[in-house]
Amino acid sequence: MSSWDHEVYRLPAEVIDRGDRFGAKCGAGKCAELPTHAVRWTYITGRSGRVSYTVRRVCTGHGERFAVKHHLTVGDPRPEQPSQYTAALEAFGLGVAGPVQHVRVYLSRSAQWYLQKHRAGGGLLATSNQWLPGVRGAEPLARAIVEAETVLAQTTLVPAAPWQHPTSNEACVDVAPAWRTDGWFFQPWRLRIACNDAGMWQLTRTLDQLFQPQVTDLGDHNMTVERAVKVADDLLQRQRWVPSNSDWSTYPDGTAEQDAWHPDQVDPSTWQNAPHAGDNSGSTDSEGAA
Ligand SMILES: [Zn+2]
Fold first, then answer.
1. Less crowded by CB within 10 Å, the N or C end of the chain?
2. 101 neighbors 33 (Cβ within 8 angstroms)
């Protein structure tokens, strides 16, 4: 017997719905049906003799055939498992380092400007260095700072205080998510739902033209604007965003728009900190692929 511990169970409704929106296909051969079930079995891997397992998402027909073949009862949906990597980190009490909290701009020995990012969280410290190709080494610190702020804006980070200038070749500053700082704390985000040229429906969240918007794919299969709005509403509710209107404005070109607040902008604990922006504790990662 080369495989054992066969199992079959239904997928949660939200997983089936997501599969439908992204055109997922049954994992059995060339079947093109929508996956509604998962099948799982354990086996020995090749010559190394290690025990391994496979999980495959399959359609109703293939799921039921698998059940009959292996004399199984189809099980109830089970929650999605966190990845083994995440589970291992949690087991050892380690979190992934948090958001960027402090940055430094400096001129390297090879006469190029770099942006150094520091993050801390969950007992980890992490530092990364990023070349700033938009500014030449001969250019002054002030130009490098402008370039660094442009790069930071791509992740909606802004300086939370004036830059500190220890030397002419480097400067550093604490940074914070823009929506937690004076300039944008009281400004709602503009939300837009639209279908792009590739046929993908997307939710775009824009705090200001200065910043790269947050874009989330909603689906490119069996979609309508009504379905896109429903998916976006569920996502926003899960992430605790607060709409400023009860309804989306819909337009003849098939787009929908609405204003909303980031959870940090309505959470009383961040209100106490506002407009002081140095505190980066708490969740600022709201991207969460659904
Ligand atoms: Zn199938």
1. N
2. no
When divided into structural domains, the chain yields a total of 3
Banded model confidence at residue 195, pLDDT cuts 50, 70, 90: very high
Ligand 1 centroid, distance to 53 Cα (angstroms): 20
Residue at 271 is within a domain = no
Weakest mean pLDDT among 155-169, 188-202, 210-224? 155-169
* Residue 172 located in a structural domain: yes
**Amino acid residing at 265:** Q
Is 90 contained in some domain?
A: no
Are 110 and 158 part of one and the same domain?
yes
Query: Minimal CA–CA distance to 5: which of 58, 42, 32, 52?
Result: 42
Domain extent for 59 = 3-81
Token representation of residue 274 = 């506002």
- Cα–Cα dist 30/92, whole Å: 41
Strand partners, 75: 9
Average pLDDT over the chain reads 85
Q: Is the pLDDT of residue 287 over 50?
A: no
**Residue 150 DSSP label:** H
Give domain status of residue 139, yes or no: yes
Read off the pLDDT band of 64 (50, 70, 90): very high
Q: Is the peptide bond before 275 cis (omega within 30 degrees of 0)?
A: yes
How remote is the CA of residue 290 from the centroid of ligand 1, in Å? 24
Find the 57 Cα to ligand 1 centroid distance in Å: 9
